[in-house]
Amino acid sequence: MPRKVDHRERRTQIADALMRVAAEHGLEAVSLRHVAAEAGVSAGMVQHYFRTKDEMMTFALDVVRVRSEVRVGAAVQALGPDPAPRRLVRALMTTLLPLDEESRADGRVALAFLSYTAVRPATAPALREGTTQMVGFIAGLLPGGDEVGAAGLLALMEGLGMYLLGGQYTEEQALRVLDAQLDLLFR
Amino acid sequence: MPRKVDHRERRTQIADALMRVAAEHGLEAVSLRHVAAEAGVSAGMVQHYFRTKDEMMTFALDVVRVRSEVRVGAAVQALGPDPAPRRLVRALMTTLLPLDEESRADGRVALAFLSYTAVRPATAPALREGTTQMVGFIAGLLPGGDEVGAAGLLALMEGLGMYLLGGQYTEEQALRVLDAQLDLLFR
């Protein structure tokens, strides 16, 4: 097997271990030792692939981002050709909300990363770029290309995600809020 | 000084130190040793006042909550008697958004707590109760007592707060989104 592929695979394996640790015990439990034990490798091996915790976190955040892009892509495919804009926007939002166990685990990791990046803005450029792209894409689907409405919908979805993870809102309540917002934006 | 007052004061002093550590270095830097050093007391002293990290975190979250209630109270007072519902709702939301350095520091702590509570739902009952009360209060100010609209507005504010802390949205953009949402709800 070529060396480059092996390197990326090993990094992904370690990042997956990091995410399992973060999802189960919280970000403050993410240590070199803990991640190494979870990945079934030595601490020295983790250090070989990631020089710093920041580097490991940034890579893991990228894995979460790619995984959510794949989920979004699959959800869009499932709608068939030329879906109505409102259906497409709703599918995007529900795919990104933590409504099943897998996306709930990813959501907990994303939340942990957000609180991590809030004190280290330098680690979050990919996050910012992703948000800008998503706002542009949603705006293109809203009546009148509504950029402010798109930015609001994305913020609403992010807040709903937090309240779902924290248990403040039930799934039913979150979906009712989302649909009411779509009523306002597509009125 | 009576013993009880001293106890609460000391706990608040330690919780303040915890919040400074969390705001500056992130939640994963919050350790007994680090908090003790920041508070200028011994690690044994911290352990005397808080048996576990969970206990310390729960108390600190309560301090943040009370502080934000005080800020909200002051903002409402400043509006004078019988403010228009829309002005009152806007003042509530802007007070809760991380728009100045103090509320940004509190926001980073709140975000850290949210990611902490997302893996330990048992530590967050006060958080949930506060959200329910706030939704009820806002609903009473919206046309038709709109509960779903109130729940959506609060989620939108929470998402805007995250994007402000993460640097995805600028202050100007966040306020434009908030005002557009108030336009929709008070239309």
TrEMBL record, chains A, B:
Keyword Transcription regulation set for record? yes
Cross-referenced Pfam families, in alphabetical order?
Answer: TetR_C_6 (PF13977), TetR_N (PF00440)
Species this chain originates from: Actinoplanes aureus
Every copy of the HTH tetR-type domain together lies at 8-68
Q: Which UniProt keywords apply?
A: DNA-binding, Repressor, Transcription, Transcription regulation
Q: What is this protein's record name?
A: TetR/AcrR family transcriptional regulator
Look up keyword Repressor and say if it applies.
yes
What residues are annotated to bind DNA? 31-50
- GO molecular function annotation: DNA-binding transcription factor activity; transcription cis-regulatory region binding
What InterPro entries does this protein map onto? BetI_C, Homeodomain-like_sf, HTH-type_TetR-like_transc_reg, HTH_TetR, Tet_transcr_reg_TetR-rel_C_sf
